[in-house]
Amino acid sequence: MMMMWVSVAAWIGLALYFPIYSFGSYEANLSVAPFSPNWAQYSPFVSQAEYHVPSNCIVTQVNLLERHGARYPTSGSAAQIVSAIDKLTAVGSYTNERMQFLVNYTYDLGVADLLPFGAAQAYQSGETFFQRYSYIVDQDHIPFVRASGSDRVIKSAMNWTAGFSAASYHVYNPSLSVILSEDSNDTLDDNMCENAGNSDEETNAWLAVYAPTITARINDGAPGANISNADTYSLLSMCPFDSVAKEKRSPFCDMFEPADFEGFEYSGDLDKYYGTGYGQELGPVQGVGYVNELLARLTSSPVQDSTQTNHTLDSNPETFPLNRTIYADFSHDNQMIAIYAAMGLFPQSADLDPTSPDPNRSWLASRLVSFSATMMTEKLECAGEEHVRVLVNDAVQPLAFCGSGDGLCSLDAFVESQAYARNDGDGDWEKCF
């Protein structure tokens, strides 16, 4: 397969079309108060734990993997949302007072682009990152930043660098060094496994369980609309999409009951689990390339991988250095799920049931891949020995596969635990083609 990448200089030449939001005159409302924890992958980032470093340890390297910030619906989702809304607005009158806003409603969301709220999320993430790790930054150790080639990912990365720079009072000014083309080898996007399946069977099975009573309620409130179960999902999704776009609670949220969003959340959980997670045979292998790049950075050794990596870039110290203390990569939710699964994070004792959610499950899309979600892999020196720990949205992961379950593994044990990645997916990669 031809290996390609997007020149950063060429991309910056298109800056008119891919603006970075200015924070001199704009401040997003990053409060989570109007938002729900049951918005699955459309939930805004919320830190899951207070950050601290073990008392006998010091961080010597950090590898950040971050999802792009909040965005508009993608083109496919937007078309389905507009179709559902058109059915409602066509009836003109409503017996449910919580639908009265639709009398004068006009759909006004964009398509797929990063929102000002999402840009602010990335900017704040960069600020927080500098404040947390400034002691491993100097002019010889500026963060090395990469992004997958979608414009919302690129803009997230550049707003992150702006936030990092601002927090340092512009003493340290990281730049976006590599943009990986999503048409070729890219460890930050799930674009290369042609034979991978999807989650449609499981999400459709769950839709048939939780949506009918909600659909009936909507149709009772808008006689003649003939809303389908699929429309109901689209209308539910307007609650998070419209809320993050307007930075206040959307009237679409009030069309539904809180329990309705528990069903919506589980749909997102199933989508990620059976899309690129453990429930998809060829899900985890799509995260192998990134894991092997991570191992190379942690061990300061060349990348050993025969899956998604771009060998031209990864063998060049200008485009894949091994001497930095901070690396920041910007990606998508589906790819982050594949990376979690390849690493062995969030293991499940059984597959998620498409018709009956386990209320005690640890697989929650809102906690795994919210807008601006983060995975940080730290290398630490503890009492003279090198260790690794992984934090997802600031929550330390137990890493029972290589340690005592307290979140700390020796560097050697962590590398050894990643045999699936080091073996290029144990033959799964060849099944992709």
Give a short synopsis of this structure:
It holds the Pfam family His_Phos_2. This protein is an alpha/beta fold and 433 residues long.
Task: Give a verbal description of the structure.
This protein has helices spanning 8-12, 75-91, 116-133, 151-167, 200-221, 229-246, 258-275, 288-299, 311-314, 333-343, 365-368, 411-417, 419-422; strands at 57-67, 144-148, 176-180, 326-331, 374-382, 385-392, 395-396, 409-410. With 433 residues, the protein is of the alpha/beta class. The protein has 2 domains: 1-10 and 43-71 and 113-196 and 276-433, Rossmann fold, CATH 3.40.50.1240; 75-111 and 197-261, no CATH class. Strands 1, 2, 3, 4, 5, 6, 7 and 8 form an 8-stranded mixed β-sheet that branches. A hairpin with a 2-residue loop joins strand 5 (374-382) and strand 6. The longest helix is centred in the middle third of the chain and has 22 residues, at 200-221. It is globular.
Determine the fraction of residues in helical runs and give it as a percent range: 25-40%
CATH homologous superfamily grouping of the largest domain:
Phosphoglycerate mutase-like
What percentage of amino acids are in beta strands? 5-15%
Radius of gyration: 22 Å
Give the arrangement of secondary structure elements.
Blueprint: H1 8-12, E1 57-67, H2 75-91, H3 116-133, E2 144-148, H4 151-167, E3 176-180, H5 200-221, H6 229-246, H7 258-275, H8 288-299, H9 311-314, E4 326-331, H10 333-343, H11 365-368, E5 374-382, E6 385-392, E7 395-396, E8 409-410, H12 411-417, H13 419-422
Parallel strand pairs: 1-4, 2-3, 2-4
Antiparallel strand pairs: 1-5, 5-6, 6-7, 6-8
